[in-house]
Amino acid sequence: MAKAAPAKKASTPIEHVPIKVISVNRQAYHDYEVERTLEVGISLVGTEIKSIREGKVQLRGSYAMARKDEIWLENANIAAYEHGNRYNHDPMRTRKLLLHRREIDQLLTRVATKGLTLVPLKLYLKGGHAKIELGLCRGKKLYDKRAMIAKRDAQRDIERIVKGR
């Protein structure tokens, strides 16, 4: 007796993959104006993913740069895993970011021609993999930062007055 082939599932829209945000680079949102964001993978070694799952990540002051047609994450601190052994990872090592060749070429031309910077904005877990939201950013001037702070303070005052009624 021949077995029947299993029925194929009807094509359904892509299911939502849960995302757990581990670290947000709030300093980058203050110092830079984000023009475009990109989700990129990150190449990890040893116990780095365990430290990330524990939330021991610091993105403040980190940036991405190109070397030999590859994008590398510099100055990001993923703390050493507490329960690791002598083969624990170096917390401040440079890490390779995983992008398609076409995306790398586009980013490199935009950075070279328009004076933009690649800054990691968020690190999160998506479907069991560590991902970084990389922003193509332009630096803010000091007066832009002051104007943003004044606008935020005025908005808080308005909300406080409306709430007090």
From TrEMBL:
Broad class of the protein's primary localization: cytoplasm
Free-text function comment from the UniProt entry: Required for rescue of stalled ribosomes mediated by trans-translation. Binds to transfer-messenger RNA (tmRNA), required for stable association of tmRNA with ribosomes. tmRNA and SmpB together mimic tRNA shape, replacing the anticodon stem-loop with SmpB. tmRNA is encoded by the ssrA gene; the 2 termini fold to resemble tRNA(Ala) and it encodes a 'tag peptide', a short internal open reading frame. During trans-translation Ala-aminoacylated tmRNA acts like a tRNA, entering the A-site of stalled ribosomes, displacing the stalled mRNA.
Keywords: Cytoplasm, RNA-binding
Family from the record: Belongs to the SmpB family.
Source superkingdom: Bacteria
Location(s), subcellular: Cytoplasm
Organism from which the protein derives: Dictyobacter halimunensis
Protein name listed in UniProt: SsrA-binding protein
Classification via Pfam families: SmpB
